[in-house]
Structures are given as structure tokens and as C-alpha cells.
Design a protein that fits this description.
By secondary structure, the protein is mainly α. It has 28 helices and five strands. It has a five-stranded antiparallel sheet, sandwiched between helices. Helix 14 (285-297) packs across helix 15 and helix 19 crosses helix 20. It is elongated and about 130 Å long. The chain starts with a strand and ends with a helix.
């Protein structure tokens, strides 16, 4: 006793049917087609299903007399479970490009993975897995059917990438392209078009180009394009985080954050919120809150905590205690859920449900954060206590120079520089070297200072590092110190072992145990910026704030160096300003410019004297340029320009000498 299934192949020039009527019409056209020898794909399908589900299918291949364009097979109705064998038969048909038709129910199972009469049939397993909370299985099933061209699966992938569901990170360009490709009825088409309509024109062009690539990619190639596009954004953010530590490339690195954030990358949006405050000449707190809001809505837990503080402190908008409480609660709930999930996973992976993971000591209660009232210090302070190296470097320069309403605090600056240097920040490594060399904020050690300067140079600092003059017998020990300092997460420990830690408790990055303690304690939004158990960074009472905003930094990439010439914060043959021939030559050049304007007359000579004085001036300018962070090309240009007024000086001196002789 059998249940009949008809198998047929659609000609390549026929479009895929999207409704039952279209599928019926195509099947009828195929059925009345010309008599031809049996399609070899029918035999390949029969061989595959017989091997995978023996005894389930009633198959008769026949002989040369089989010339029908369609082929009927039966299902053994005595089988207890039809589901898995039939799904496998459909899968083998899809692999071979064949369609199955059930004349009893009137359902077509097409080779593109679609079933027009039951649109959700191919993805029912994915839907059940998602409903059960098994996101990994749901995502894998949707991908499997999307590779076969199933529009419902394509649309589901697009929705997941749009809203960040099924454990996936958002990617708005892909989401729009997949939703447009998979829209299969009036409701889904309206939703896809509405989402696509919110894109700016330039982004729409990207989406259209992406759709062309996806439509031209068969099967697994479509999934590869999706994976490559998503990986490109993730790689851009990871590259930005690493490249930004290399100070000479910070602008290039941070420029990659906003495009990634615009694609829905929650970490990029969170980091960009800091960049618009400390990475530009004019801090933009409103923009920072906007990006932080997006990252929080995209379910990034640190962004929720920061947004709570922003609402509580009034950074980038009005104070709103209700919103602060809302986001603070959301952050705590998300953290608790993550901890429960981790504990459940550890229990499931351990024998007898007993976790074998080492127990972490309970974190001490975090101390309340002391706010200065200046968001240009307080907001980076929040990031720095979370472990962000750029924020720690910003605070280091603030404490070193006494910026933003706070006094000079060299010990605290040293601690912030050490934290940023441990994370790989090049300029922070250099500044820490100057502190260790001169004894600012703590003990000094010439060998460790040289090691820090060498390490800063390899990391790409923007600061000038002249000849360190390391003696041959010291080269081995210095390199050993460099090796120890560059070990991940070991720099501050090495400084402590050598007795070079600052004279205060160093600020610490966030740790999961400390954050867990904060969640359990039910801290307020004010305290949520402190994820470590160390005492809060000491801050002196805030001074009266001036009416004007704090002076901005000079550039996006050099937020720390506006006062460094005055502080002698360069490492070279001299650590501070000193008068030498170069400065004298430049001073003479300035005086000569006045004389040149006052006394120059046509026909004046003394060419050899002018040439000699020009050489002296060029040497002086070159020597003076060594005190500044200029490239060799810039120094050469300065030397040439310095020679020009020296030529005029020779002319003027000749004219003055001639005038004196004539009067005598």
C-alpha cells in the first residue's frame, strides 16, 4: 500500500512558481511534455534515498519503455514515522534540482526549497528550535534553506541581522538585501521596503550592489558572501581597536568606527561614543549619548550601564532619573542572566553537575565614584575604569597637566599611563617612560625607562625618541626588561616587582568578578562606572568651573600634547629647553627680517658672506628642530627657509657698514 509522489524537473528557462496555481500549471505542462528517455536524475535520486531510508520508498525504475517526463514513486504507509525520511527525500531532490508533487494534498515541494501551499513548511524545524530557545539550531536551519533559495529562510536571516536575534550581530546592509530578496507576500514586502526606505541614498546603492552579488551566487556561495560581509565589519572594528593603540595611525583607525557602528555593530557604537568626546577638538556629548543609546538598544550591556550614568549625570542631555533607573535595571538583569547561563553551562559540562572551575575570590565592595562635575573628565573616567586604554591615556594627560578643573596629580597620571601602556597604547608607554626616567609620581629607574622608550618606539609612538645611548653591557638587560613589559597584562606587575609602581593604588580595568559583585550589591547608576574593587581614583575637590568650556585638544589624534613643549616632555639628548647655537641663529634671523625690510637696496652684493651666513643659519635651524617632533623632511625645509633671512642679513650688514664709512 503506497502513498504516491510525483517527481518532475522544471526547465531552466521557466521561472520558479510562487503560488499553488503557478506550480500546478508548470507541473501540468511538464506532464504533457514530449516522451523522452527516463531522466537520469530520477535514477540518481532513487539510489540516494534507498541508501539513506531503505524500505521507506516504493520505487520502480522500469526499463527503456519508461519515457514519461514525470515519474511516480510511493511511500510505504506501514512506516511509523514519515517525517525524517520524507524530508531527506526532499533534500536529495533539491540537491539534484528535482521537484516533488503530492497529488493527494496538492502540495508542491520545489527544488528551490519552497513549498507555495505551505510557505513555512521548509523552515518549521528552525521555527520550532527558535521557539524552544535553541538559537544555534534555528540559525543553522535558516542558513541551510537560504542556501537553497527558500525566500522564507532568506527573509528570516534578514530579520535576524536587522534586530540582532538568534545570537547574531546586526548588519543593516545585509539585513535590507536579504529581506528584499526574501519578501514573499504583501506584508513582508511592505516591511522590507519600509526598512530599505530608511537608508540614505549612498547606503541604498550599497544594498543594491549587495543584492546583485547575492542573487548571482548559487547555494553555498550566497552564505559565503553573507559570512564575508559580516566578518569584514567585525575585522574592521578589531583592527580599529588594535591600530588605534599605534598612535601614528589613530585617525585612520578611529575613522573605521563610525561606518561599522552605522551597520549596527554595538561595540563600535559604544567605542564611538567615547571617540566623539576625546577624539575631536570640540567634544560632542549629545552625539556620544546618541551612539551610546544605540549600543544600549542593540543589547550591549556596558552601554546600558553607561547610558544610565549619562541620564543620571546629564551628559549630552537633560537629567532623567527614571531613564537612569530603567537602563541600570536592564544592565543588571542582563548581567545576571549571563552569569546564570554561564553557571548552567559549567554545571552541564562538569561531572555530576559539580563545577570544576576555580573559585574566584569575592570582590570587595566597589567604592563610590567621585565626580568632578566636568564630563570631559568624568565620561572618559567611566571608560577608563572599564579598561579602555585611550580613556586612561586621556586621564593621564589630564592629571599630569592639571586639566579640566583638577590639580596636577603625577602619581595618578603615572597610574593611568601604566594602565594604558599595559593595554598596548604607544604614547602612554612613552609618557610612562618619561615618568620612570625622571621620577615623576614615583621611583625612577633609568634601565626600565629605556626599555619603555624602546617598547614605545616599536608600538609606533608619535613622540620623538632620540639616541638612547644604551651601553653594550646594558643592552641584554634592557631587552630582557622589554620582553617582560610586553607580555600581555604584565606591565604593571613588572613595575610593581621592580618597586616602580605609583605611590597610590593603580586604577584597574573591569573584571567579571567585580561586576558580578556590583550586580549582587544592587549599585546605583552612579556606582556602575566602577567595575573594579580598587578604591576610586583620588580626585581633589573641584575648582570653580570657568564660564567658558574647557580648551579643546589640538587635533583628533594628539589629545595630549598641547602643553608638552613647555614641560620638556620629549626624550632626547636634553629633557628640557636649553639655549644653543640653533636658537641664536633663529633669533638673528628674526632681527634680520626687520633689517632687510628697512635697508635693502638694489645692487647690494657680498655673495660669499651671504652664502657663509646662510650655512650657519641652516645648521642652527636643523639643530633647533631636533627639540621638536618633526620629521627629517620638515627639518630640512626649516633649514632651507632659515637660510633665506640669513642672506638678507648679510646684505643689510654690508649696507650698514657702507653707510658708516660714508659718514666717517
Amino acid at each position: 500500500m503506497s502513498y504516491t509522489i510525483q517527481i518532475w524537473e522544471k526547465p531552466a528557462d521557466w521561472p520558479w512558481p510562487t503560488t499553488k496555481a503557478e506550480a500546478d500549471a508548470q507541473y501540468e505542462r511538464a506532464e504533457v511534455g514530449p516522451q523522452v528517455p527516463m531522466n537520469p536524475k530520477f535514477a540518481a535520486w532513487a539510489q540516494a534515498v534507498e541508501q539513506r531510508s531503505p524500505g521507506f520508498w516504493d520505487i520502480y525504475l522500469g526499463g527503456p519503455e519508461m519515457t514519461d517526463p514525470t515519474w511516480g514513486v510511493g511511500i510505504n504507509t506501514r512506516a511509523s514515522d514519515w517525517g525524517a525520511p520524507f524530508d531527506d527525500g526532499w533534500e536529495q531532490a533539491v540537491r539534484l534540482g528535482l521537484n516533488l508533487y503530492d497529488p493527494q494534498s496538492g502540495v508542491h515541494y520545489l527544488a528551490n526549497g519552497d513549498a507555495p501551499e505551505e510557505p513555512d513548511l521548509p523552515v518549521q524545524r528552525a521555527a520550532r528550535a527558535r521557539k524552544a530557545g535553541d538559537d544555534a539550531t534555528a540559525w543553522a536551519e535558516y542558513r541551510r534553506w537560504a542556501a537553497r533559495g527558500n525566500p522564507h529562510a532568506l527573509y528570516a536571516l534578514g530579520r535576524a541581522l536587522r534586530f540582532g536575534t538568534m545570537g547574531q550581530r546586526r548588519h543593516f546592509d545585509l539585513a535590507a538585501a536579504l529581506q528584499l530578496m526574501g519578501a514573499h507576500d504583501a506584508e513582508t514586502r511592505k516591511d522590507a521596503q519600509a526598512f530599505y526606505g530608511r537608508f540614505p541614498e549612498q547606503a541604498k546603492e550599497r544594498v543594491q550592489a549587495l543584492m546583485v552579488r547575492l542573487k548571482a551566487a548559487p547555494g553555498e556561495q550566497l552564505l559565503r558572501i553573507v559570512d564575508e560581509e559580516r566578518k569584514a565589519v567585525d575585522d574592521a572594528v578589531a583592527r580599529c581597536e588594535q591600530l588605534a593603540l599605534y598612535s601614528r595611525r589613530r585617525i585612520e583607525a578611529t575613522d573605521a568606527l563610525e561606518p561599522a557602528a552605522a551597520q549596527g555593530h554595538e561595540v563600535a557604537a559604544f567605542l564611538h561614543a567615547l571617540d566623539v568626546v576625546i577624539g575631536w577638538e570640540q567634544p560632542n556629548y549629545e552625539n556620544a549619548r546618541t551612539w551610546c543609546q544605540r549600543a544600549a538598544e542593540w543589547d550591549y550591556e556596558p552601554a546600558k550601564r553607561l547610558l544610565a550614568v549619562m541620564h543620571e549625570r546629564g551628559w549630552g542631555g537633560p537629567v532623567d532619573t527614571q531613564q537612569a533607573a530603567k537602563w541600570n535595571t536592564a544592565a543588571q538583569e542582563q548581567r545576571q542572566q549571563a552569569l546564570k547561563k554561564k553557571q548552567a553551562q559549567e554545571a552541564s559540562e562538569s561531572p555530576g553537575g559539580l563545577s570544576l572551575a576555580p573559585m574566584t575570590p569575592a570582590a570587595p565592595a566597589p567604592a563610590p565614584v567621585v565626580w568632578t562635575g566636568n564630563p570631559l573628565r568624568d565620561l572618559p573616567g567611566w571608560y577608563a575604569r572599564e579598561g579602555d586604554p585611550h580613556a586612561a591615556f586621556h586621564l593621564g594627560t589630564s592629571d599630569e597637566h592639571g586639566r579640566y578643573g583638577g590639580p596636577v596629580n603625577l602619581a595618578q597620571a603615572r597610574a593611568w599611563y601604566a594602565q594604558a601602556a599595559e593595554a598596548g597604547h604607544a604614547d602612554a608607554t612613552y609618557n610612562l617612560g618619561t615618568f620612570v626616567e625622571s621620577g615623576k609620581g614615583g621611583p625612577k629607574d633609568a634601565m626600565v625607562a629605556k626599555a619603555l622608550f624602546m617598547l614605545a618606539n616599536t608600538r609606533g609612538t608619535t613622540m620623538q625618541i632620540a639616541d638612547l645611548r644604551i651601553k653594550p653591557q646594558d643592552q641584554g638587560p634592557v631587552r630582557a626588561v622589554v620582553t617582560a613589559l610586553r607580555e600581555p597584562g604584565r606591565l604593571r606587575a613588572v613595575l610593581q616587582e621592580r618597586g616602580l609602581s605609583p605611590s597610590i593604588a593603580a586604577p584597574g580595568a573591569s573584571s567579571s568578578a567585580a561586576v558580578a559583585g556590583a550586580v549582587a550589591a544592587g549599585l546605583s547608576a552612579t556606582e556602575w562606572g566602577r567595575a573594579d574593587g580598587a578604591p576610586a581614583a583620588p580626585v581633589a575637590p573641584a575648582r570653580a568651573q570657568p564660564s567658558q568650556p574647557p580648551s579643546p585638544s589640538r587635533s583628533r589624534s594628539r589629545v595630549d600634547d598641547e602643553e608638552e613643549e613647555d614641560d620638556g616632555h620629549r626624550h632626547g639628548a636634553q629633557s628640557s629647553f636649553s639655549l644653543h647655537l640653533g636658537h641664536v641663529a633663529l633669533a638673528i634671523g628674526v632681527t634680520n627680517a626687520v633689517l632687510l625690510i628697512a635697508f635693502f637696496k638694489p645692487g647690494a652684493s657680498f655673495r660669499m658672506g651671504m652664502f657663509g651666513l646662510g650655512l650657519v643659519a641652516a645648521f642652527g635651524a636643523w639643530r633647533t628642530a631636533r627639540d621638536f617632533d618633526w620629521s627629517p623632511l620638515a627639518r630640512a625645509v626649516v633649514a632651507v627657509l632659515a637660510a633665506v633671512p640669513m642672506v638678507g642679513m648679510a646684505v643689510c650688514l654690508g649696507l650698514l657698514f657702507k653707510a658708516v664709512r660714508e659718514r666717517g
